[in-house]
Each structure stands twice: as C-alpha cells, then as structure tokens.
Amino acid sequence: MASAFPVSKALKYLLVVGGALVMLFPFAWAVITSITPGGSVLASPPDFTPEGANLGAYGKLLEVTPFWRILLNSAWIGAASTILQLVTSAMAAYAFARLPFPGRGALFAVYLATLMVPLQVLIVPLFIEMRTFNLIDTYFAVLAPTIASAFGVFLLRQAIAQVPKEFDEAAVLDGAGHFRIFALIVVPLIRPALATFAIFGFMASWNSYLWPLVIIKSPEFMTLPLGLAELHGRFTTEWNVVMAGSVVSVVPILILYLFAQKHVIASVAQSGLK
Amino acid sequence: MTLTAAPPRTTPTSAPRPPRRRLRYAGTVAVFLLPSLIPLVLFTLVPMAGSLWVSLHEWNLIEPMRWVGLDNYGEVLADPKTRAAFLHTLTFIAGYLPLVYAGGLGLAMLLNRAMGGRNIFRAIYFLPVITSWVVVALMWKWLLNPASGIVNWALGLLGVEGPGWWTDPTWAMPSIILASAWKDLGFVMIILLAGLQAIPNEYHEAARVDGASAWQRFRRITLPLLSPSTFFVVVISLINGFQVFDQVHVMTGGGPGGATEVVVEQVYRLTFQYGRAGAASALSWLLFAVVLLVTLIQVRVQRRWVNYGY
C-alpha cells in the first residue's frame, strides 16, 4: 500500500498522471493525425502541430464512404438492440421470477446454458439461417441475434426477485393484473438494473464486429466497426483518413459516456463484487 | 383502500385455478415469455443444434452437405494448424493477462486512497474500455507503425531501434497484446478497485500496529482479501482471451505468415475462405469445450485460493 513506504504524494500523482497520459495519448494522436494533410502524415519526425492542418481527411472520409449513414446505422441499431433486449429480457425475467409454470426451472437452466455458448459456435448456422431467409445484407440480420439476451434475463430476474412480493400482492388486492404489476410496480423498482443492462447492451452492439463482418456486405448497411475496418482495408497508408473515421466513431459514445460515466463505472464495479 | 367483507382474492402466484382462468394464466405466461423465447430459439438454440449438425458434414456452404461423421473433429484435432492456433491464443493470454492484471492492480491501489481528482482519473482510465476494438486496433496499428509510427520515433529518441511490430512475426503478437492490455486496463482497474474498497480498513490498521511491513500487508491482507475480484478478472479474461478475434483480425489478419493466427480467426477463415464449414464448426466446438473445461477447473480450484467471507 502506498502510504506505508514513504512514497511521496508527488510520486503517486506522477504515476497516476503518467498513466492517464498513456490512456489519453492514443486518442490525442488520432485527432492530430486526422487533421494532418495527406502529404505529411507519414513524415518523420512526427509533427505534433501539423502545418496546414485541415479537415481534408474528414471530407475525404465522407466522400469515399457513406459515413454519416454508417454512423446513423450504428446509432439506431444500438438503440433498437438495447430497447428490444430490455423489453424481451425484463418480461421473461418477470415470468421467471413471478409466474410459476411447469418446467420453469428447466427452461431457466436452458437460458443459463446458452450464456456459455460463444458467438463463433453459432456463426456458421446463423449465417445459413439468414441466407435461407434471404436476409443477408439487411438490418434485421444484424439485429436478430441481439433481440433476446440470456444475460439480461439472468440479471433482471435477480433484480425482480429482490422486489418484495408484498408490493405485488397489494396491487393484486387493488385489482391489478400481471401486466399492470409489471409495468407500474416492478419496472420502476428495477430501474438501476435496467440501466446497467442497457449500458452493457448498447456497448456490445456499438462495438460488435464479428457478426456484422459475416452478414453485411454493402457499405450502406455497415455499422461503424465494420465500416472502419473496411476503410482501413482500402486506405492502408492514408492514416489521416482512417484516424478521421476513428475519431468520428469515438465521439458519440464519448458524449454518452460523459453523461453516464458514474453509472457505467458503478455497473462494472458491481459486476465484479458478486 | 378499504377491504372488509370481500373474500380474499388469490394472489397471482397461487396454484389451482378453474380451467378458464388457467387458460388465461397460460396466456399471460406466454405473453411475458415468448418475446424472449422465440428469438432465443431461432437465433441461439437452433443455430447451436445446427452447428453440431454441420460439424458432422463436409460442406462448402454451396454444394449439398456430405455426411462425414466425426471426421471433422479427427481432422481438426490432428491438424498442426489447430495446435498452432491454440498456441497463439495461449501466447496471447499469457502476455495479456499478467500485463492487464498487474497494471490494473497497480492503478487500483494508487487510486484506492482518497486523492484529488480521483474520479477524473478513473474516468480517463476507463475511456479505452468504451472504445470499440476496431478503433483501438486501428489507433495502435498507427502508433506502432514500423516506419512512421510515433512509438518507434520515440524509441529512436532513446537510441533504440524500434521493431517492425505488427509486420514482424516475432513482434506481431506483442503488438496485439499491448493494444489489448491498454484497452482493458481500466476495466480490470475498476473491478479491483471495487474489491479493494470492500476490504475493511481496520485490517490494515491492526497489521500496521503489529508492525507488519507494507509488503507483508500486501501479501497477507490485500491479495487474499482481493481474491474474489482477482478470480472474477481471471475467469472473464480467460473466456474473452480464448475468443480473441476483433483486434487480431484488424491488426494483422492472423499474419504475418500466420504468426498471430488465433482460433477464432481460424474458424472464420475455414468457413469463409476455405469453404470448410464443417471443420470450422468442429473447431468452434473444440474451442467451446476448452473454454468450458478451463472455466470449470477454475471454479473447482478457486476453493484453494479464493477467500470469500472476511
């Protein structure tokens, strides 16, 4: 522990600040590279204040790829995937926590088992399934595997199980059915768990690469990770264009992060305490 | 709410009901369950079964499937490329896990005690975690560019001639490990920081009073009491490590000369480049079996070193 041997506060700060610089520098360098004119990107020594800095790389980015569309794709697919997962998982979690039915335990075990199966096991048959229904290169194909989430059902079931049953029973006495109990009592009470799950869900969709790589071919249906990787494949040495794309794709999630930062970190911290 | 003479209504969870109500109840259960169950069946359970089925066939995704029984498994097990892919994956894990754990623990311990701007630093360290793998891989590919990358330029200032990084078979995997550790450091730090903060301060105080050195307190108090968080980090890192793909595919594509060909890269290649969907499925199940086995072993072994309950 730091305080025991006489590490001065200054040294500690030095380490923490040094670490922060290591974390921030790649982002800063991406921004600097993205405004460097094409001719001097590969120049040595690297230029921290590039002469003739301009937004040309961003212009080129928009010229060679439908980048706004790709950005929009990622945003709405992320939002749709998050909302779908929230709705389907919360409802199923309610059934598993509050509605006894024959075989419930076994079905829940099936859900848990699917948690362990990695995506790459499913890739080939999923691809074939999509091809059979002529869904290759469609938004639906990107979204499909993310509609249901076993992880979400598991997480939200735990949360619902912690809602005291007396709350539902009081509502039943008032004549409320399951739908009203779910919507008006349970959902408001598990909001923190829903928020946690929403954050994980959105990040997973926003960053997803392998599945879109397999299922999407046309630029207009691409999401950001795929669009960027494809851009890099075409402009191997034009790092200013590639970095411009990287910067543009980091900004939206960064803004979201700045707002939800505390909650994001708290959610992750909690996941390790269980 | 005033209820006096009304008969006690049954709660939604109580069992025997008249047939009509039972039907309605079954309908309610279905409405809650099916929005999740139908997609789970279609996009997870059916593909799972499908993957097993495909793994028993020779198939290039175009011509009709040909039954080959367990041949694909035999072939994949005997193929030196499989061994190489697992070896590369293990090399990745062996480099990545110690780096990300030691770095994360160091940062967590630095930030564990109150200090000005702690939340800002925490947010900064976490920044790469929210960045997508593809962006991280591209940024690092540029930083580690052999000829015009800034890392080699900085090494040059120190009088060191930087290696060819991702273009050099020896340095390609270290490049990927570096980028990956950089991205996940904040994640590990947050998990370990939460673990550190759950350790009651009195333990350290008592040990200090007894004259324990900083190192002794670290060895005897911090590490054992942090073991649940460590366990979580190790399990998650191993599961993710075995499935490493995004950063590899973007940074090296398995190259140069197959030096970073990891298992999932191999699955991808077998399916979409070599037209060997059956072999690819067999390999993916083999990977799944390995991950499952490793996780189960860890869960079993944890009793020996993970310390729950203070």
From TrEMBL, chain A:
Gene3D superfamilies documented for this protein: MetI-like
Domain (ABC transmembrane type-1) ranges: 71-260
Keyword vocabulary terms for this entry: Cell membrane, Membrane, Sugar transport, Transmembrane, Transmembrane helix, Transport
PROSITE patterns: ABC_TM1
GO annotation (BP), single: transmembrane transport
Compartment list: Cell membrane
SUPFAM superfamilies assigned: MetI-like (SSF161098)
Membrane topology: Multi-pass membrane protein
GO cellular component annotations of the record: plasma membrane
Principal location listed in the UniProt entry: membrane
Alphabetized InterPro entries for the sequence: MetI-like, MetI-like_sf
Pfam families, per the entry: BPD_transp_1
Source organism superkingdom: Bacteria
UniProt key word Membrane: yes
Residues annotated as transmembrane: 67-96, 108-128, 140-160, 181-203, 241-260
Family stated for the protein in its record: Belongs to the binding-protein-dependent transport system permease family.
Name used for this protein in its record: Multiple sugar transport system permease protein
Species this chain originates from: Nonomuraea dietziae
From TrEMBL, chain B:
Alphabetical list of Pfam families matching this protein: BPD_transp_1
Listed Low complexity bias regions: 1-14
ABC transmembrane type-1 domain ranges (all copies): 86-298
GO biological process: transmembrane transport
Compartment list: Cell membrane
Record region (Disordered): 1-20
UniProt protein name: Multiple sugar transport system permease protein
Species annotation: Nonomuraea dietziae
